[in-house]
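Worked example 3. Consider a protein that binds alpha-D-glucopyranuronic acid.
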Amino acid sequence: MKKFFSNIILVMGTLIPLTTAAETLPLIQNVNAYESMSLNGDWNYIVDVQEEGYYDYRMNPTRWGFFQNAKPQRPEDLIEYDFDKSPTMQIPSDWNTQDERLFFYEGTVWFKKSFQAVPTKDYRTLLYFGAVNYDCHVYLNGRHVGHHIGGFTPFNYDVSELLKEGDNVVIVKVDNKRHAEDVPTQIFDWWNYGGITRDVKLVKVTPVYLEDYSLQLMKADGKAKNREISFSAKLNKAEAGHNVVVYIPELKLQQQLTTDAEGKVSVTLKVSAKKLQLWSPETPKLYQVNLSLDTSTYTDNIGFRTIETHDKQILLNGKPIFLKGISIHNEKPNGGGRANSVNDAHTLLSWAHELGCNFVRLAHYPHHEEMVREAEKMGILVWSEIPVYWTIAWKNTQTFENARQQLTDMISRDHNRANVIIWSIANETPHSAERDDFLSRLAKYARTLDNTRLISMAMEVTGASNYVNRLNDNMNQYVDVVSFNQYIGWYRDVNDAPKMTWEIPYNKPVIVSEFGGGAKYGYHGAKNQRWTEEFQENLYIENCAMLDKIEGLAGTTPWILKDFRSPRRVLNGIQDYYNRKGLVSDKGEKKKAFFILKKWYEGK
Ligand code: GCU
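Given these inputs, the predicted complex is written out as structure tokens:
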């Protein structure tokens, strides 16, 4: 292997430039509508604690890195790694639950997948990742495709120029080390699962494709005879004259449109109100929508509903709704590990349904797409959040750009989901001018991306004395719903919930986005004995009664549906690296408090 020019190397007789050779593209909308080749399955992996595969011994990025997948050509050649002789793990997954040596591991792991491809000149090929935690470099056939940070949102690259006929090799360097300037920052109360945690696929697209589209029911007063549905779409190229058709067979709604110079179309479709079944938890109606662009066609399933607030009420389809919710982490229903399938979603959401929920808070980061779509089918409303969690580096401009990109991708992926009603931009963030500036800019930005949904964040009780709890947060003016976490009965004021009163000086709906306490399933005793099911049960009895007294309470998402892994929970014999505030244990066993909340929701 000889070095010719600073960013060109010779590998196995081939000249290989070292620059990034693919384009990071805006997220493609509804990727499942496209023909694609899954790259899920066995991937070889190399654990690289000191990033030997990326840096030389002077800590400069090396050009002989593992991304070359180099093989000795002559007997004397020295290559000190070999993916094909390295173990494999199933992708998508996290490495922590796939290889017991990596249970606590935070660092770099390299992944390699070989595959066959038959690129055709009439199509482009996108390399799509559902999510990779946290910091990854992607290579195809030895070329750098792109660098992505953020562990919970999808990203895609156009790799058409790099794809070869026949053998191809994709290599991904994944690093989940934590840093103060990251989003989330250095400490968080969930397991820092590392790896390629969601689907990987090669997506076949025409050179011009529908990059994004939106179908939203517009608000109207209840008596309106006709309803209006706004449709807009954007091509991946600013090209005029392309033929776009939107067709909703069941509503006999069809419209043909031609793109303008920006490659955009938009129209308002009219439908008689009688004919339109609105999406709601009771009737989670989804309409098949057929979209076509020139000769290509795509299908999606979309529901129509409106969401708004009126004083302290949340109105779904113009009617007040109480959000009977539960918080959930994106973890497999049994044991640990990142959830990433329809089954994982269905099991978790079925427990929420059993509780009587019509709403879930997907904490503290965007969950896998199947979770949101399964909830939509099951009639469960969603609060979706970006991991601006605890004390973020508010003054750091890259941190802000990182948070903004995650917000962009969260909204971009799920903005056509009828069940998603709240975008949350933060959780339990300490008050400061820098924080207010950071979050207010995020809130305003979110509205520019989507002005049809509610904006919120999980605030904290700011003052409590003599059993009077106050909420005083400058961010109230930037959110539609005032939400806060409170842990009366657990982190403070045990058994004092009945005495508590609340001062929430904002004429906006209130959501108690967290309350709860821990219990080890099967551990029984007196109701004042920590960690017993009886303690948790009593805490729920008292908190539910206290919540009934909060004026303007429009919903709640107790913490949390299921015990989940956390490195911050080290009490041996009780926590064992699980946060035990679940109403269901890590093995799917229901604790006594589960039935207290279920009963309370029956009364709502
Ligand atoms: C916080 C936080 C959660 C955490 C919970 C707890 O409020 O938002 O992420 O797990 O409290 O302490 O259990």
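Take a moment to read the result before moving on. The chain has six helices and 37 strands. The mean pLDDT is 95.
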